[in-house]
Amino acid sequence: MRYPSGINKNYTKEIKYDNRGMNLEGDLNLTNLYYLNNNIASIYKKPTPIKLVKVDYPSRKEAKITEAYFMTPSTTDYNGIYKGKYIDFEAKETAGTSFPLENIHSHQIKHLNTIYDMGGIGFIIVYFSKYNSIYLLTIEKFNEFTTNNKRKSIPLEYFKKNGYLINYKYNPRIDYLKIIDDIYFKEEV
After folding, report:
1. Are 131 and 156 in contact (CB under 8 A)?
2. Neighbours of 96 (CB within 10 A)
3. What CATH number does the domain containing 107 carry?
């Protein structure tokens, strides 16, 4: 930018990739808190299992983890209970027009399939940040896509045709249980 005094100031915007998907996670956490506080469901964010190897203790308040490693691969992000059914799901975010399959690990897919095979409810929630839209895709529809396609990503159009759009609301913010009701509890609603 050129100022009248002749001073040149160049500004470059630093792109930060840390905490991508944290808005989705934060909104899901608030949604789950709403469900819990209103006795609708009990669904929690699962912690990532890590093993601490070394911690520096200059003082109790200043303890700092200096070495740790993942004990086992984490399964999925969230699990809990709703209307007597076990629920387990993974939450992801993408900036593109498709969801890259490399963003979800094979052990997570296997885990969601195990949940489904045992009578639970498994799905993924994907936030398309470019379009500010959130979709729920059941593990059944996820498997249908990966079985019938050689693509390395699931296009947004597939989510539109085979998934469920979740509209933002005030409370709960991301009411995914409304979709679960429509899919699995239609007779009860």
Report:
1. yes
2. 12
3. 3.40.1350.10
